[in-house]
Amino acid sequence: MIDDVATDSSTSSEKSRTSSPSRRARRVRMTGKERREQLLDIGRALFADKGFEGTSVEEIA
Fold first, then answer.
1. Residue 33 half-sphere exposure, CB side, CA atoms within 13 Å?
2. What are the Low complexity biased-composition ranges (predicted)?
3. Hey, what's the torsion of the CAs at 53, 57, 59, 61, to 10 degrees?
């Protein structure tokens, strides 16, 4: 459910700075309704798996 992964590699950050904007895929922003539904779905799954006390806001968001 995590879409982005951080890396420590300086070469990957250098590559991202040198690549042209036309080569990178542009992200499409979700509507508020879509994001709300996504958060609710993730929350339900985590609560079912780990329980209310075992789930953090950071995991959901």
1. 0
2. 7-22
3. 150
